[in-house]
Write a structure and sequence with these properties.
The structure is a homohexamer of 242-residue chains. Chain A has 242 residues and is of the alpha+beta class. Helices cover 33% and strands 29% of the residues of chain A. A five-stranded mixed sheet of chain A has the order 1-2-3-5-4. In chain A, strands 7-6-8-9 form a four-stranded antiparallel sheet. In chain A, a hairpin with a 2-residue loop joins strand 2 and strand 3. The termini of chain A are far apart. The interface between B and C is medium-sized, with 35 and 34 residues. Strand 9 (201-207) of chain A pairs antiparallel with strand 9 (201-207) of chain B. Chains A, B, C, D, E, F: It comes from Virgisporangium aliadipatigenens. Chains A, B, C, D, E, F: Residues 11-141, 163-227 form the Exoribonuclease phosphorolytic domain. Chains A, B, C, D, E, F: This is Ribonuclease PH. Chains A, B, C, D, E, F: InterPro entries: ExoRNase_PH_dom1 (IPR001247), ExoRNase_PH_dom2 (IPR015847), ExoRNase_PH_dom2_sf (IPR036345), PNPase/RNase_PH_dom_sf (IPR027408), Ribosomal_Su5_D2-typ_SF (IPR020568), RNase_PH (IPR050080), RNase_PH_bac-type (IPR002381), RNase_PH_CS (IPR018336).
Chain lengths: 242, 242, 242, 242, 242, 242
């Protein structure tokens, strides 16, 4: 049983991280996982929301969105419908949580970072690509703050962990890494694994909408996910040292 | 290091499931996990949404909400703010997904079930209590449909699996089952485990907002969660056979 | 012509007021008028809205809502529809007005009370049950503020009047007290009477959607309503002295 | 104690009803109660809402609104705020209910009438002026439908009752008819009385936001209101026979 | 080819400007272009929005709206639909821009003017009538501020230009001034011309939804529009000197 | 007085049109006017909106939006604010109108095209770039429909005109073509010119927010705009023949 693009079950799609893809944001990264393309920007503002003022701590939030025709058929704009949908909310919260876990908000000082992840083209794994790309955009933004002499600590203190994410799933009984859309829709089990560069877990979300799964399957998926995140961490490293 | 209510680390809070707590719905269950109290109702309508008509399959959705003063301080109503928040969306989707995995929608036939989980009092674990109580409400609703002779299959076909859920977390290095609010806010890692009555996984969501976690911790939490769900499955069984 | 539950025309349904039904709010009362069940909570915050600051006067507002399946068929949530409906608005305003008339806002001092009346089960008279229960919740909240030494006056000054409410209506030419749902839908005339404990009127709202009514009918309904409120005032008294 | 405009306590302000004030609507009446000016239009469409189809019954709804600067200071538009306020909802519902009570919806046949009451200038009593003017607009609309040969019955069957409304209130202990704004804001008790042309009640709403009121005061207010509505009914008659 | 009301191609409809049409606003003008009737009010508040504080400059915004039955068939209210439509937004912005261009905001000082243009009856050219009427309302408001001794400069400094607007269009190849609705819907090209009293352009918007247009047609339309605005400027002058 | 990028006053920025920039849409064009980058997609669906069914005519609408950080500082998402802003509405309507004028909707047959113009990076002229790019996306979509044998006429009938747009403005008295952001914010007069490939006007919008303008300036701007559109038409031609 081969994959649509003939990858090995434990193989990532070609991953690319293009820094400074747009010029205005303090961090701007185009991340590609195969045909999935997400523009991740990090916008910095001095100061923090009112409820956090005087705490000495920074803040980070994230917003995820899809262009209406990022997908095979067109989706109505959430701005036109007048509300943000459940899936969008859920993914935005996941991205924000994952990135916050990996920043030292005290070393960031009272600065705010807003991450925007806009999916230009979707082919499965948009949320994991978004997390992976957003980390690089945040790293660029942190260095930008440092260059402005506004950082409370040193950049490497703020960025004390890296974070990357990948999807894994079971298709026809076979655990696979980094599902494309065609695989995603037929997966019995679907899991997103978010790991630090040192292999610890930040978030694990496994769902069996088509079927339930047992401990052995769960373990196989975790193994795949951890390995995939380790590869992505290296690619992030490379991109940041370029 | 003892728990606020002196429970053992692997001990559930007192759980109670009161069927027919209100009289109008086809299924109506008040579920209590200690001080957490959620009213779960299942509302049946004949037919399915337009996009599903003629498929022969039933449908189920869920909506979760909190009364404004279910919590220690008052939250503004989402109806007054004019939009459903991200947390509410996320939990509603989790409840719906979990319940759908455990129903045979073909045996349900073209009937729709809407689950409403309204938190009357919150003390941690509201989403897991909601799933656990909602399953019992759905079971009552399925039998109600059967009594109306509108079920495509037999009730035990529709309800081919049971589902229950529990939260687990790491506090001060110690894995614990069924966190109350006081524990929840200080947990380093927080996980929700949704299992079938036969111990398979339906959904696993682990989050390390305060800290990351390693594979050993993840395994300990999964063990606790699976055992907790098994106990809850028995309590559901008992309630349904009363 | 007998009533669905064989009551006399001037007889209330069994009324019950359970204080401290939930533990978080400063006042929390479950009120039951027969099968109608409303949770009334009073939430206290120090200070008043901006436009009232420095006035020395307190403030009170109320919000009424129904759980989606409090009724015989399910109603969509107002949070999901994105707006509060006209009926909800109208009842929330009535409850707030009625309670404010009965508080000495100067003796309350610059404290705010938000009343939430959530209908758990509806069988007619939900707004009048809400007012009746909310008064007791407010009384508990006022005593709570006093215990915090934050009250400008004494509790009995703040609570210088009690307030209760009941519905009355004409069914088949016969004036009746405290209509249940089955009576409500067939009533020619429907009136809500809100009285103080000393028998004065706070609000009178009579509507003839099915038919018009003459002065004699209006007088008969007022007589019934005043008597009903007097009984409810005694039940409130009893509950508060328990 | 004299009134701001030296009227007797039981005296209406100058009332004027101008038919065909605008040309597009099937009924269009500018009603003036002193400085209060409301444009009441009645829009007819063939057919009824889906839930009423095949019933043989007509339908009528009403929407009330104020221009932003109808009042002494400017109010934000509800369209800009994105929601209809509680007061607007409440008045729209009152107008619709009052008019429906006075139409024979069977004789109307499956036609729909939408009433729009837009306050061009406000000086107290806008809702009662709106009801009084809207009746005349509806009468014109009913005759328009008759002229199109689309009425199920005869116009005088449809319009089997007339309806008018007036506000009354207690200021400094004195009951007064038809309060202007200056009186309205200082009234202890405020009541709206809606009567048929034959003196029956359609709706009675008395509110004591500043103070409570006793039965004697209530009776005095009802007497004033009934007399005021009788005068208004004559003015309506005159306008319609012009 | 004659016009519906037998006007010459370069002839305006009868124009009327009634000042102080309502009494509350600082400026209140009913403008009529034939059957088109728009109430333009100018509301003054001391101070400016937060982002402009301390600049020494005043501010002006405008909101345009139509009553639901200003038109031949009824339009739903934007308040009920919960959002302002694109056409409304576009016209509101045009009115605000046109008026701001003609005020010296420095001479106005830190005062804010809100213009409301509510269409009571629509027969083509509502936006151009609104601009023409609003200028007169603004002039009255500026004099009102001066009378309060709150103006930074002299009124004639603030009102250093007058502004008026008119629609022009091509119907059946013929350029015409001030289209009524019947002409507007069949126009191949539709243009709105906004000019100062000295004949300069403030805004030119030409649209060919039915057909495209060439430079000669554009020039003919501009000639007509400039001449029309000059006439309107005289009528404004006259109204203001009355 | 030289331009920020040293262009001649009548010189366009480097323009690029990349077809098939994303793979899902029936037409997908990345248009660049210097640093301004807009993704224009055309989505085809069979059939037309209900109100147009059976007319034999096709339909086209457009939606414009900016990514939150397309600009120098971040703008809140319209989906999060729950409403589409006035500027967005205005531009969406302009794009839709311009494209519709250039299609033969009868030859299109009952097919619908939705254009989405999402600004990835903004540097002035986003709306004119969007129109220019959208035409190419629509052309690709029309050929796609033809390939599906669903077009009523031939592609060249549907696309009977081409359309392009460019901004022009007066800076320091000098008329300039294709303003970048730095020029746009200081322009006294700002005009958008939309022309067909044969040099006719589709839309002309000139605004003098900073200052008014006379006929000579208007003529100079029109000359520049027409010439700019002619160049753009050639670039479109080239892109489509590639």
């Amino acid at each position: 049983m081969s994959r649509p693009d003939d990858r090995a079950p434990d193989q990532l799609r070609p991953v690319s991280l293009t820094r400074n893809w747009t010029t205005h944001p303090e961090g701007s990264v185009l991340v590609e996982f195969g045909q999935t393309r997400v523009l991740c920007t990090a916008s910095v503002t001095e100061g923090v929301p009112r409820w956090r003022k005087g705490s000495g701590l920074g803040w980070l939030t994230a917003e995820y969105s899809m262009l209406p025709r990022a997908t095979t058929t067109r989706n109505d704009r959430e701005s036109v419908r007048g509300k943000v949908g459940g899936r969008t909310h859920e993914i935005s919260r996941l991205i924000g949580r994952s990135l916050r876990t990996c920043l030292d908000l005290k070393a960031l000082g009272e600065n705010s970072i807003v991450i925007d992840c806009d999916v230009l083209q979707a082919d499965g794994g948009t949320r994991t690509a978004a997390i992976t790309g957003a980390f690089v955009a945040v790293a660029d933004a942190v260095h930008w703050i440092a260059a402005q002499k506004k950082l409370a600590g040193r950049p490497e203190q703020v960025l004390h962990r890296s974070v990357a994410a990948v999807s894994v799933g079971v298709i026809g009984g076979q655990p696979r890494l980094d599902l494309c859309y065609e695989e995603d829709v037929v997966a019995d089990v679907d899991m997103n694994v978010v790991c630090t560069g040192t292999g610890d877990f930040v978030e694990v979300q496994g769902t069996g909408e088509q079927d339930v799964f047992d401990r052995a399957q769960l373990n196989a998926l975790l193994d795949l996910g951890v390995a995939g995140c380790a590869e992505l961490a290296k690619i992030q490293q490379l991109a940041l040292s370029a």
